[in-house]
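Work Package 3 (structural annotation) set out to generate three-dimensional models for the target panel prioritized at the project kickoff. During this period the team completed the workflow that converts sequence records into discrete structure tokens, so that structures can be stored uniformly alongside our sequence database. As a representative example, we reproduce one entry of 128 residues exactly as it appears in the project archive.
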Amino acid sequence: QVQLVESGGKLVQTGDSLRLSCVASARTSSRYSMAWFRQAPGKERDFVAGISPGGISSVYADSVKGRFTITRDNAKNTLTLQMNSLKPEDSAVYYCAMDSNSPFTRVVPNSQEAYNTWGQGTQVTVAP
């Protein structure tokens, strides 16, 4: 089974930028949509951004549109989330996820139920 390992989370200031990375343990991840979710204390896990297997299509939550960019490098089995203009409300544990139920799909799901492989998460804290 493919494993996902996130990195890059840390404490930053409001307005700063941060890049999160997720490395998959197998190249088969290139067949599947991947996404970032986040969960703040006491809240549900929310969709942040997702990208299609080939990287052609991407979708974003309204709260991050124009500030976050999701990309993938299938040759390196890596998913990235570039976060700019960070706000305190962006503070959360960020999770990388993969939807291995639907290979080569053109539709990127935004519900966590669609994703069946998850990383352990990386903490992002944005100070006021």
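The mean pLDDT is 95.
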